[in-house]
Amino acid sequence: MSATPGADRAAGEQLLAAARTIHAAPALQSALVAEDSPAAATMRDRVFGELSTSARAILDAALAQTWSSARDLVAGIEELGIRVVAAASADAESVARELHAVGSLVVSNAELELALSGTRGTSERRGALIDSLLAGQAHEETRVIMGHLVRAPRGRRIGELVRTATELVADQAGRGIATVTVAKPLSATQVAAIESTVCERYGREHLLVQIVDPAVVGGARVQVGYDVIDGSIAARLTDLTLQLAR
Which of 68, 70, 179, 207 could cross-link with 29 by S-S, CB 3.0 to 4.6 Å? Predict the structure, then answer.
């Protein structure tokens, strides 16, 4: 999917709100995934009549597609909303980095992760919590996307939600995401070398996100999607240990 040119951040917010509305209303879901009819059109106008022209155009185009389930429909509208928000940003790469950082913070703090999960508190309380955490600390686009994710996790863990959103934002900016785990921060030269290698291997530029973990000892562990290139000393030691144990 791709965002519609000219749509602004407000349109993206409206699409994300529409995804939450559809998810929360089974009767609306049934009407939207069914074949088009005057009754369905009337319901759409009543529920989404206040959307901006650009948001409504994107939503109507999405609803005109064939969806195998209401779940897929909601996921599709959510993706469009995230892409529109990203496309409206003047610095989507920074938004992707911020999302990754927030996701890492949340999953490293069990209490915070529980507070932001769908099993505790209301959606609005979770949204207010993430708003307070990000106020003045992140781009508005980051706040909008995170606010949506914690309000409507739909049974997904926060780490999974943020990882997917980060990939969508980076993709909207024309890049992939490469996570590099190292024992100490990389120099600019090392970053450039890894970026060049990843670009050559995968055929597109990738946004490099560093994770510093002394346990890797040396070298680097690069992950792109589910593909892992592990050149760390820790990995080589593990391989050697396994060979010696045979």
Answer: 70
CB 3 within 8 A of CB 171: no
Query: Each residue of 174-209: b (16+ CB within 10 Å) or e?
Result: ebbbbbbbbbeebeeeeeeebbeebeeeeeebbbbb
Centre a 10 Å sphere on the Cβ of residue 227 and count the other Cβ atoms it contains: 10
For residue 79, the one-letter residue type is E
Helical segments of the chain, H only: 9-24, 26-33, 38-48, 53-63, 70-87, 92-107, 110-116, 123-134, 140-151, 158-172, 188-202, 233-244
Q: Could you report the per-residue pLDDT of 189-213, keeping only the tens digit for each?
A: 988 888 888 898 889 999 998 888 8
DSSP single-letter state for residue 25: -
**What pLDDT digit, counting tens, does each position of 139-176 carry?**
999 999 999 999 999 888 888 899 999 999 999 999 99
**pTM of the entire predicted model:** 0.85
> In this structure, which amino acid lies at residue 105?
L
How remote is the C-alpha of 207 from its chain's centroid?
Answer: 14
- What angle is formed at CA 215 by the lines to CA 214 and CA 220, rounded to 5 degrees? 80
Going by C-alpha positions, the residue among 220, 142, 148 that lies closest to residue 184 is 220
User: Considering only CA atoms, which of 53, 46, 41, 39 is closest in space to residue 8?
Assistant: 53
pLDDT tens per residue, range 35-77: 666 777 788 888 898 999 999 999 999 988 888 888 999 999 9
User: Is there a contact between 178 and 145 (Cβ–Cβ < 8 Å)?
Assistant: no
Do the Cβ atoms of 70 and 29 come closer than 8 Å? yes
Q: List the 176-182 sheet strands across, edge first.
A: 206-212, 176-182, 220-224, 227-230
Q: Distance between CA atoms of 21 and 74, rounded to whole angstroms?
A: 9
